[in-house]
Amino acid sequence: MAATQPVNAPAIVPSGVVPSPCVGVCAFDPATGWCLGCARTADEIATWREVAADARQRVWDRLPGRRAALGLVLHRMAWTAADIRAFALRALAPGAGNWVVGIHGAVGEFSAAPGETVRIARRGDALEAATAQGALRLAVEDSTRALGLAAGGGSPGLRAIVLAVPRVRLALPVHGAVTPLGPDAGAIGAQDRAAPLYDLGLGSPAAQFCIRSAEPAMLDVLAAAAGRPWMQAMGTLGPAALAHAPHRVVLTQAARVEVYAPIPPPGDRSPPGPHTHLLPDCLALGRETSPDLDLPAAYAPAAIFYPAPDGPLAGVAG
């Protein structure tokens, strides 16, 4: 991957396509007649495919006020897949913000510190970014949706942007115990594609939390843990991971985070840049997203971007 300066990545060039605001929640507020998912009227929904692009845009322009009146904090953004890719390229800039991939309690996070070089590559519809401490791949398809989470409290802009995929498209294997997956052929760096990958087996259809290592001592511990529930195996896996610093790989249907940085000792804070969290108490809640973020049931999280408060994308709207 050639070194680039993503801070100079181009702004979004609107595609001219006006997508539907639908988020898969089809219920109407009896007082206003607006949909509690997208804030359109029944007539606007029924005639959406029949009206011209300028009429669709006029509907989009009315929605922010309606969402505010209804108290809706999550909405579909008027972005096509190409628009999402263009935004993601900007959001990989050092200091732009933080990408989070995984489920509540088991995530990989990717960000680049200000001034740090980010190596970026486009591979078909996917974007890959890497620093010395980790890497991120985003595979945006036509079915990928960008959902904006309002900042709340009267603040402008968005607190987060969720890249979500239709739940019917989830195809990750679901394991309930530590499971060997063979060589990590999907590794972002070619040098890592022969290294064995083990899924900890969290049992979620939305994400896998994995360990990758070529260190013989770490592989011995992983092989001995295979077939055991991850909580039972952590008594040996945890100390080995602290000692040998294996790569952690978190996968969703449309994203991958790889973390190369060592795991901090218990009680220490995670360092700036790429890192992971594996928190049993949070996992016990059985949620895919944090308690302050509920996605429509039709969608699963692929990746969430949190703009840095003082970064180039602070106050982004959509």
Report on the architecture of this protein.
The chain has 318 residues and is α+β, with helices and mostly antiparallel strands. It folds into 2 domains: 57 residues, no CATH class; 241 residues, no CATH class. The chain contains 6 helices and 16 strands. Strands 1-5-6-7-14-13-12-11-10 form a 9-stranded antiparallel sheet, covered by helices on one side. Strands 2-8-9-16-3-4-15 form a 7-stranded antiparallel sheet. Strand 5 and strand 6 form a beta hairpin. Helix 4 runs antiparallel to helix 5. The radius of gyration is 21 Å and the shape is elongated.
What is the average per-residue confidence, as pLDDT, rounded to a whole number?
89
What would the principal axes of the Cα set say about the shape? Answer: elongated
- State the separation between the terminal residues, measured CA to CA: 31 Å
Helix and strand content put the structural class at alpha+beta
- Which stretches of 5+ consecutive residues score pLDDT under 50? 1-14
Strand percent estimate: 25-35%
- Number of E-type strands: 16
Please count the helical segments.
6
The whole-angstrom Rg is 21 Å
What percentage of residues falls in helices of 4 or more residues?
Answer: 10-25%
Structural domains: how many: 2
The helix-strand sequence is EHHEHEEEEEEEEEEHHEEEHE
Largest sheet: 9 strands, antiparallel
Strand arrangement, major sheet? 1-5-6-7-14-13-12-11-10
